[in-house]
Amino acid sequence: MTPFFSILVVCLNAGSKLEQTITSIQAQDFTDYEIIVKDGGSTDGSLDFLKGQLRILQQKDSGIYDAMNQAAEAARGRYVYFLNCGDFFAERDVLSKIHSLILEKPAKHGIYYGNIFERLTGQCVPSNPSMDAFGCYRNVPCHQACFYQRELLLEHPFDSGLAVRADYEQFLACFFAGYRGEKVTFTYGEILVCNYEGGGFSETRENRKRSEREHRIAAERYMSKGQIRKYRFLLAVTLAPLRTWISHNEKTAGIYNAIKKRIYR
Q1: φ and ψ of 250, to 5 deg
Q2: Alpha carbon 170 to chain centroid, angstroms
Q3: pLDDT (0 to 100) of residue 166
Q4: What is the per-residue pLDDT across 144-178, written as a single tens digit (0 to 9) for each?
Q5: The pTM is what?
Q6: Do the beta carbons of residue 20 and residue 46 sit within 8 Å?
Q7: Long-range contacts: 180-186, Cβ < 8 Å, 24+?
Q8: Partners of 81 in the β-ladder
Q9: Phi, psi values for residue 118, rounded to 5°
Q10: pLDDT digit string (tens) for 40-56?
């Protein structure tokens, strides 16, 4: 039978983090899901401690986004969710709540998303509840907050030529290109989805610069030059770099996210 959710965990020599992440999935009170562990060839013994019903897809890949594409192709669920090693579901009923949201607001082609808790700053980070073109330029929901209909990932796979922004580019592809000419629906629920570790590969100083370049590449694929000029101006006059610093600072992130949540509401 086709599971409702496919929970995909991509890893390489993840150590004890892998087992902890899998345990958080298996603790969910909603059980109509499959777990696929896509391993790039770990040699640290991390796979030896996995228990319960799951599939292990162990094969070479060219990087994390290629691994995510391989996992999505192997998935059988209607909705796909990526949970990174070191990240956990925020509560035992996350899948139940997302399942209810999908049933309450069905979409022919859709992405459902909520919020994340960022351990690095100790704050809940709210997602934009109403996506538009400017919202897509500014920022999109963290992929650890998103549940994708599987066909969207097959129609718009992650661009493995991008090192840190392929999830951003894929979201833009869904928003602007849709699914075979049809619009994709983005549905927000005020659900705390993931306890997010933060401080990973994409957040090193070198990759932050790369992130800016790849953000520009992705935006130019789907937005006009006029749109981009307009959105850059809006970010400049609203002090976006300063707001980014405030949102990542441990002492000020709480105030920033509280204001952000109020504005979204």
Answers
A1: -60, -30
A2: 10
A3: 97
A4: 999 999 999 999 999 999 999 999 999 999 999 99
A5: 0.89
A6: no
A7: 180/155, 182/108, 182/109, 183/109, 184/107, 184/109, 184/110, 184/111, 184/152, 185/107, 185/108, 185/109, 185/110, 185/111, 186/110, 186/111, 186/113, 186/131
A8: 7
A9: -100, 110
A10: 999 999 999 888 889 99
